[in-house]
Design goal:
This protein has 428 residues and is of the alpha+beta class. The protein is 30% helix and 24% strand. The strands form six sheets. It has a four-stranded mixed beta sheet with strand order 21-22-1-23. It has a four-stranded mixed beta sheet with strand order 2-14-16-15, covered by helices on one side. The chain has a four-stranded mixed beta sheet with strand order 4-5-3-13.
Length: 428
Amino acid sequence: MAEPEIHIEGGRIKGKVTPHASKNTALPELGAALLSNENVHISHIPDITDVNNLMQLITRLGGYAVRENGDGDFNGSGIEKTDIPEEFTKLRASYYVVPALLAKQGEAGLYLPVGCEIGKRPIDFHIKGWKQMGVEVEENDHIQLYVPNGLHGADINLEKSSVGATLTLMMTATQSDDETIIRNAAIEPEVIDTADLLIKMGADITYDPNKREITINGPTKLEGCKHRVPYDRIEIWTLMVAAAITHGRITIENLFEQDIKDVQNIMDVLEQTGVTFEVGKDYIKVTGADNIRPYKGTLVTAPHPGFPTDMQAILCAYLTQANGTSYIEEKVFEDRTAHADGLNNMRADITVSKLDFGHSFEIKCPTKLHGAKVTAPDLRGGAAYYLAALCAEGETIIMGHNLVKRGYENLEKTLFNLGARKMNEWNV
């Protein structure tokens, strides 16, 4: 059977919605739970492909991973295997189990994980940090890690503020002798929430977001606890743009104070284009502008709290409807550009130019988008096509939408409930 398609025929997004749980937080937190031999109860787990695959990997390694109705129990008491099977290569989050393997078994083997094709994403920063902590590494197509004399603390200065490396090294450091300092650490909300989970489990971690430093004193015995995965800030952003691109109005409700703080940077961007917000204690009301203004200046992707790379493709789609030209520069991933081809196939006018690192996008507007048959290039590029289809004339057919399911829980159903028309999935 061929891959399913999504058919979308416009729609104005309006109504009330509660977002789903965060993919980018849940994945490292399942890995962190494996460092304990006691049950770590994690609630509000998203039902998405990447989480389901990571749970399969955990059980394959001998760990405990059981979920029911969004709540799960996890621990690493039964871990006995050390090699991550090659079939999990496309699960980039597979490296989140490595700290538990190193701590419990003294070794780990993995194939270089790939994930979405948005540019080179090697795990060099992970490996350099692990080496500083006493891990010996054999590298070829298969990476083998050994801990011959125990894990020890280190002063690690990341060359790039990498979320994945910050998370794996922070987890590993909880089981290392002495103090570890991670400098130029990523301070994304997903990192901070995972640190808070580890602290609940008994880890000695302090973090200073202003200095971009995380200090871990190990080793500590990590115990069981209860923890809740926060809402997905990227889904919240996506829903905001869905309302804005269709001149609609939605209320995103049941939020916590931190959820609202975590999306302020995108609210600031959208306000410049004419979107208005009403922020309450536990909700955000979003009202799209009748006349969308272009973004003044240039949006440049950067680590948190800067403009997030995960929103670059989605903002490209949105800004095709502005009354003027907008500019975006992708400086986090060098090849996150493929979504521009699909948008141009829908009659957008986007020019992509190479930079010393990354690319720039000149988005000439306004353009009337027309339905077309497009293939999702990656997770966020696929989501950008969903939103472009909402304001396009005629039907848009999106192939490869299983990539979108990797990071969004039922995005198609959410948009349909908010007014998207002809949100049908077909097996063809």
